[in-house]
Amino acid sequence: MSAATEATAPAGREPAAHNPLTYQQQALLGVSRTFALTIPQLPEPLHTVIGNAYLLCRIADTVEDEPRLTAEQKERFLESFVEVVAGRAPPGDFATELHPLLSDATSEAERDLVAHTETVVTLTQGLRRRQRGALLRCVRIMAAGMAEFSTLGARGLSTMQALDRYCYHVAGVVGETITELLCEYSDEIAWRGRHLRERAADFGRGLQLVNVIKDLWEDRAQGVCWLPREAFPGVDLSTDGDWTGRDFEGGVLRLVDQARGHLERALEYTVLIPRRETGVRRFLLWTLGLAVLTLRRIHAAPDFRTGETVKISRRQVRFVVIATTVLVGWNRAVRWLFRIWMKPLYTSRSTGAGLAGVAKGAG
């Protein structure tokens, strides 16, 4: 459906002939270039269920990020969305109420996604029971965390532990959900499930922490700060404070070091996936590689002032795709590649023990 046609359609009300899977594929292209690239690498039925999981999470994320909504409204819409995913509330009513409240700060693609909530949830309800259960758990935990932190972002978080808790609720749980879906898909992956679950949340936490650092200036412009005051001693983290100088840059580097540790665990997770599951491994390696190279750019320029400054180029994206695809089935080669990519991320505080652990990892 074209944007012009969609603009005249009642929010949340879809033509009966609209195909949910077709819409899902189109929506992924609009709301995430990264996952539009990586999710199609997955074999069916993982391609469908993980794509659907991402769109559900993105609807919740749209509620969290909308500046026009009050904390009370965000909590109410997030609770309502959990009921929608559980099949206990009509998705059309949710979309019809939320859509008109979204401002221009929410992208057109995200507003379109909210308007198509019913289409997205129709696909959710057609999944297998275990898959639906995993997605509902994810949305429930995510929504609860977003509601909890909805009033805390404007002045920075208090501690690294608080930031870690936030990253778990909005992304770590996604790592857990993907793990459950992988185990449901493959008995061979399920056999390694205990070791995967030990590392799953770290994968999501690492990706989210990279985004928190990369987007800190854009968040500040929206009156939001997710940085932990504990990591920035002597710095006023209010959104009109002075975010310059060595103390601020030192805090950025502390977060980079924390993110690196999570991404090392994500690499351990990835090499646990059976080598013959090349689609799953590409999905994970491409996502991980893009995050590592973004973190390298931040590490090299902790005084950056816009997310565009540290955004990796299309050439770098192609390099990640080609390099990891060529090496996808060789754990030793994959570890070697990521050791090279991560080497610049070590600061004077690092011991190098983390990557030594990766080099001895499973697989």
Describe what this molecule looks like in 3D.
This protein has helices at residues 3-8, 20-31, 33-38, 46-65, 71-85, 91-98, 108-115, 117-125, 129-149, 160-185, 187-191, 193-214, 216-221, 245-272, 278-300, 307-310, 314-326, 331-342, 353-359. It is mainly α. Helix 4 (46-65) crosses helix 7, helix 5 packs antiparallel against helix 9 (129-149) and helix 15 packs across helix 17 (314-326). 45% of the residues are buried.
- Unreliable spans: 1-17, 348-363
Q: What's the tally of helices?
A: 19
Largest sheet: none
Beta-strand residue percentage: under 5%
**Order of helical and strand elements:** HHHHHHHHHHHHHHHHHHH
Q: Could you tell me how far the N terminus lies from the C terminus, measured between alpha carbons in angstroms?
A: 45 Å
SS class? mainly alpha
Question: Any idea what the shape is?
Answer: globular
Tally of DSSP β-strands: 0
Mean pLDDT: 89
Helix coverage percent of residues? 55-70%
Draw up the topology in text.
Blueprint: H1 3-8, H2 20-31, H3 33-38, H4 46-65, H5 71-85, H6 91-98, H7 108-115, H8 117-125, H9 129-149, H10 160-185, H11 187-191, H12 193-214, H13 216-221, H14 245-272, H15 278-300, H16 307-310, H17 314-326, H18 331-342, H19 353-359
Entry keywords:
19 helices; disordered N terminus; disordered C terminus; mainly alpha; 0% strand
Q: How would you briefly describe this protein structure?
A:
This protein is mainly alpha-helical. The protein contains 19 helices and no strands.
